[in-house]
Q: What sequence folds into this?
């Protein structure tokens, strides 16, 4: 491609609201352009990256036996009513009425369409398994679209839906997809982990997220330093914490503790380690029709994990409770404990059967000591804690370490949630109608462009990996008036194209400084600068990662490029 | 591809509302599936055809120097306000509000997005020309979606937008696109014509439609039998009609013509040919804010062409006027003529300066004779007639013939309509700011799948052309219990794949009759039936077009397939 015939309108101005390097460089490099809150159009460079990523995804999905389809972007609301999601899906689901006042949605995901595509068409277990996927536009009306295409409202996603006769076969496909996704992200040159994940609102019996490890990640993930265990903090488990400090042996007693409202103060007053204290976290749980104040108890040195807490109580959302709301619920802030509490509460499961604990007495300026956390009903105990760096791996006891990650894929074992709701069945070996067992599998295709930059950039711009870059290399003509240079560069360009390299030649009538700045911003893996040193038979090879520069023989330029790129 | 691992759920049931073969066969063959009024999802076979067509379009567009982009499907309403179309576009434009009550549209076309992509980025004539295109989902909220994917609401379209420094360069690109489109439709194996078209609401200085000639076409097109002239009836021109019959010489006179309300009656009463009579067609013109009764006068033996009439008066729509509306407008139905008429009217330009004409006298039971159509103002004369079969070519005088066509592409010279409205300018050679000259160019990608079937099918199903078929051939195993046959068919399949053919093997455990019916319905260009004749070293070659069957040597099967397909 000739830069003079291409359209990559680079600029020095970053978007005002941009904080992430990927957002800044994608806009400055003319890859994408904003066209409204969370809405982006893809310029030629952005479209090239969309296609490159899509092609890798498609290739591996096809090799795994999945079949590509295309669901309509606008979907009939009736399908969403059948599954029950039309009313329960939040405001992210963009609902609209057409000219005839009928309801439609712009697809944020396509479980319903996928079920509709097999319902009454796949009738026998003999036609299973079946895996249908698409790479298509999605829309989610995010409350706070941000970070450029990393969290936009319109985005391109690969979403696949598999149908099985039983749970074993679903599990087989789930494992196949884990392997397939690993191949895809490896081919894209990414440093990623498959982590245990919260299945949340999608439901089902198990899910894994694929996380790319980057400094600016939105998600906290915990990885074991000695085995393969890794999990999103929302779903991370650990070995129960070992006791530390002297056991504060005492008979049960209500103790006067004036103004002792924090764990730190309690621990100091009683001279016990925080291990023996119980912390109350008070939240307001929002449900579809009502809300409720709920207390979550965790060990004094632990923190509440919000998603776990939300799953514990089945709320749509948890928000902080106001002082008045806490008071009206009959809760004494600062002195709240599970013994004799007159409000809904849950206790972290690690506290079960702990003895000699100290907790609030639900009375101003009083705590209980010598408490046994044993006589509560089993369903009060839930996994509630936020696992931290240094906690022990639940599998091997190794150390867990906290990293930041960005989600790029998520695979779910859905089970029969959607097929049952939509009454989509097949006849099994015994001629009995059963709902399909389903899996669903997503990859954020457009988001991956940003993730690849988050994972690899410097202060000057993108640093694309050679596995998947918009172009393999840029051939830069330093000076268009240098006839020898122009001739050599054009020949090199033509030879590179002929030998299968995907190169761009910067043949624009621009100053050399502009061309170098643009090269560094666009970030193709290599550049060949054809300049004055051509007189001595040399050109400059720039390696974008590290911006290393070396003089090489001009006659070797193509050979060296090919070596570096393979 | 193995049919046993594929998903083409064929059925004998045609959709209830289906009248066109393409609609019936696309649904019966499991290419597409309806998911709401005018909404279709594409199953694997449909997706394969979408990709095949897209790839041909993309290849030729890239060769012509256009650059592929991707505009967001959801577009900010502000862009549409800037161009002025947010308010004037009809109900086909799907407008919706997001969770923050801001206005958006689902793109029916992307002139605004294209202008936004170059505005303030292309600043100099040196950066021109530039042609950006995408292949993307569109949505038009059609009042009456019908004919399956031929007139759906959601569809896939290739839309391109070019930017130029002057009208000459736009004209050059327009001609290049005419040539490019011709290559595309030729590669798709279609019998098409590029015809002169009405530019209508899009505006601009010239446009051409690409029409595929098919029996079930929605459009009337006129093609010259001796030169290349072809036009949509909406824009068709002709040589002025030659007079016939005796000239009814008479001095101007108002004649009593009781109950003589039709052209036929007038012609019989006066014993003159219809050539010398004037017909009044009375319409109600709908504008954005009001409506008006307008009379269109054409020669007695001509018909009014609605689109031409609409363009003449600039109305958004023309509808029939009721008896009351006609009366209230002061028009005497059956006796209406241009002389002394107290209503808005236009006259067909072929009538200009005609003499010895007969027309209504705007008085019950009276006509004027001996009328000269000469003293009216020039702007009353417009091209209003519907050109018919047998009319004479405006270029060479040959005979025009009427055909039915389906529009598959449309190219426009837009001029500066959108760039001016959106204030998108560049600096010309003299440093003066000028609005871009623009062209726009569309191809109905998803509709082409249906068009290809309309153009080539029989009563049993699709008959794909070998240029662009979902698969080149089907290898049919007659009987899965025939081990020799299964072995031979699988070897042939593998060899065909290895030599670059795109074949499907029907290895399903189904009766032979089912397989043959499915083959005829899906309609790949060739089939090889591996059956009993293999004992004598033969297989059957079926040519789908004509369903011709021939025994060929089994050992020659691959060679013959390759010969037929090249």
A:
């Amino acid at each position: 491609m000739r830069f003079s015939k291409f359209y990559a309108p680079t600029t020095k101005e970053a978007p005002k609201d941009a904080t992430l390097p990927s957002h800044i460089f994608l806009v400055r490099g003319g890859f994408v352009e904003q066209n409204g809150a969370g809405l982006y159009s893809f310029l030629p460079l952005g479209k090239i990256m969309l296609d490159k990523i899509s092609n890798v995804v498609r290739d591996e999905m096809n090799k795994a036996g999945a079949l590509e389809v295309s669901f309509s972007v606008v979907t009939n609301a009736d399908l969403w009513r059948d599954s029950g999601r039309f009313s329960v899906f939040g405001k992210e689901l963009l609902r609209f009425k057409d000219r005839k006042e009928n309801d439609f949605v712009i697809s944020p995901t396509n479980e319903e369409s996928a079920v509709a595509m097999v319902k009454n068409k796949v009738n026998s277990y003999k036609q299973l398994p079946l895996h249908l996927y698409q790479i298509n536009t999605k829309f989610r009306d995010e409350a706070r679209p941000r970070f450029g295409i990393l969290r936009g409202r319109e985005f391109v996603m690969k979403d696949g839906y598999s149908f099985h006769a039983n749970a074993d076969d679903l599990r087989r496909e789930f494992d196949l997809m884990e392997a397939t996704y690993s191949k895809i992200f490896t081919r894209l040159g990414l440093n990623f982990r498959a982590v245990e994940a919260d299945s949340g609102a999608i439901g089902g019996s198990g899910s894994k997220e694929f996380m790319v490890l980057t400094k600016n990640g939105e998600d906290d993930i915990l990885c074991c330093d000695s085995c393969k265990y890794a999990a999103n903090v929302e779903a991370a488990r650990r070995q129960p914490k070992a006791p530390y400090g002297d056991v504060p042996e005492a008979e049960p007693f209500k103790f006067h503790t004036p103004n002792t409202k924090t764990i730190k103060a309690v621990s100091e007053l009683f001279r016990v380690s925080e291990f023996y204290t119980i912390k109350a976290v008070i939240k307001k749980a929002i449900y579809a029709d009502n809300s409720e104040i709920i207390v979550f108890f965790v060990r004094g040195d632990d923190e509440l994990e919000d998603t776990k807490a939300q799953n514990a109580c089945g709320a749509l959302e948890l928000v902080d409770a106001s002082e008045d709301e806490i008071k009206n619920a009959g809760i004494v802030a600062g002195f709240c404990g599970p013994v004799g509490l007159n409000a809904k509460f849950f206790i972290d499961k690690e506290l079960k059967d702990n003895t000699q604990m100290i907790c609030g007495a639900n009375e101003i300026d009083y705590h209980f000591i010598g408490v046994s956390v044993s006589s509560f009903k089993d369903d009060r105990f839930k996994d509630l804690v936020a696992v931290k760096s240094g906690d022990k791996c639940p599998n091997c006891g190794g150390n867990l370490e906290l990293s930041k990650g960005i989600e790029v894929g998520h695979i779910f074992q859905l089970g029969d949630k959607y097929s049952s709701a939509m009454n989509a069945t097949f006849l099994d070996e015994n001629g009995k109608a059963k709902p399909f067992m389903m899996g669903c599998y997503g990859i954020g295709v457009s988001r991956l462009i940003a993730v690849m930059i988050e994972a690899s950039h410097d202060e000057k711009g993108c640093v694309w990996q050679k596995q998947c870059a918009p172009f393999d290399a840029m051939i830069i003509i330093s000076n268009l008036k240098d006839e020898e240079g122009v001739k050599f560069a054009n020949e090199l360009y033509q030879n590179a194209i002929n030998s299968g390299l995907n190169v761009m030649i910067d043949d624009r009538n621009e100053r050399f400084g502009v061309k170098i700045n643009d090269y560094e911003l666009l970030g193709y893996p290599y550049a060949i600068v054809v300049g004055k040193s051509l007189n001595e038979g040399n050109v400059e090879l720039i390696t974008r990662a590290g911006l290393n520069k070396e003089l090489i023989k001009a006659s070797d330029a193509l050979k060296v490029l090919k070596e570096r790129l393979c």
